[in-house]
Amino acid sequence: MNSPTTHAFPTDAKTAPYRRAAVIGGGVIGISWTGLFLAHGLDVVVSDPRPDAREKVLAGLDEIAPALAALGLPTENLTARLRFEADLATAVADADVVQENGPERLPVKQEIWQTVEQAAPAHALLATSTSGIPATAIAEAMRQPERLVVGHPFNPPHLVPLVEIVPGERTSAHTLRQAHDFYTALGKKPQILRKEIPGFVANRLQSALFRECVHLVAEGVVTEAELDEIVTDSIGLRWAVAGPFRTFHLGGGPGGLPHFLRHLGHAMEAAWPGLGTPVFDEPTVARLTEQAEHAFGDTPVGELAIRRDRAQIALMRALATTPDTHAHV
C-alpha cells in the first residue's frame, strides 16, 4: 500500500493526547474511519468479532488508499500502525478515542458501550457513528452518560467532510469540545447540533429529497437516470457552494431571504401538500430496481465509486475543503 505522497502532518496541540484510536466494527464505515485515522498518524486497533474481519479491513484499506492519497494524505506503509483485537475490552484499554460503528440495533450498542466505558481510559473520547439512534438512548446503560456523543459521518468518512456531532440529554460540554477539536484536526467539517433529533440533519434532508425522487420516478415523470442528471446539473451544483437558505437569500435579490419569503414563500408552501408520499410496495421496488439495472448495471459498483470519489475530490479541491487545506492531528 504505497504512494508517492509521503509528507507528514504536524501535530495539532489541541488533539496531541489523541494518538491511539480504537475502531469498533470493521464494516464500510469502520474501514473508512480506520484509513483516515492511520493516514493522520494515529495508532489504530480494529475490534470486530468476525473471523474474516482482518482480511476484509485490509482489502478495504487497499481500495480507499488511492482516494486518501488524492486528498493529500500520506498512505505509504498505511497499515504499519494497525492491529486487530477481537476482544472489545482489550481493544479499548489504552485508547485515546473510541469510534464505534457497530450494528444499528439499540441493545447491541448499549452492550458495546457498557463494556467500553468499563475498559477504556477515563480521558478517552467516546463517539458513536450511529446514523439515527439518539445518544440519550444508547447511554442509558452507562454510568457516565456525559462521556458519550454521536460523531456521525457522511459516508464515506475518509472523503466527505461533514461530521454531525449530536449530544445526548446528558452529554457534557467538555465532551462536545473534545469531539469538535478532534474531528476538526482530522480535516473534517464538524457541526454540533443544538438539539437531539432522530436521523439528525443530513439524513433527514437526504430522506426528504429522496422521497420526492421516488415519487417522481414511480409516477413516470422521469427515469432514475434523468432525475440524477437534473439534480447534478442544478441544485447539486448550487448547494455545493451555497446551501438552501443562502441560495434563496440570493434568489431574493437585494432584499435577500425576507423578500424571497414575502413574494415566493406562500406559493412554495401551497405546493407542499402536493409533494409525493410514495411507499416501497412491490410495483415501486420493481420499477426502481429495473431502472437502476438499466442505468447503472453495465458498470461495476467499484468503478462507479471510483468515478464518484474522483469527481468529489476535484470538487472539494475547487472549494478548498480537502484535508490538506485544514488543520491536522
From TrEMBL:
Family of the protein in this entry: Belongs to the 3-hydroxyacyl-CoA dehydrogenase family.
Enzyme class (EC, first level): oxidoreductase
Alphabetized Pfam families for the sequence: 3HCDH (PF00725), 3HCDH_N (PF02737)
Transmembrane segments: 21-42
3-hydroxyacyl-CoA dehydrogenase C-terminal domain sequence ranges: 199-266
PANTHER family: 3-HYDROXYACYL-COA DEHYDROGENASE FAMILY PROTEIN, 3-HYDROXYBUTYRYL-COA DEHYDROGENASE
UniProt source species: Streptomyces eurocidicus (Streptoverticillium eurocidicus)
Pathway(s) of this molecule: Lipid metabolism; butanoate metabolism
A Gene Ontology BP annotation from the UniProt entry: fatty acid metabolic process
E.C. code: 1.1.1.-
Molecular function per GO: NAD+ binding; oxidoreductase activity, acting on the CH-OH group of donors, NAD or NADP as acceptor
Name of the protein: Hydroxylacyl-CoA dehydrogenase
Keyword DNA repair recorded: no
Residue intervals of the 3-hydroxyacyl-CoA dehydrogenase NAD binding domain: 21-191
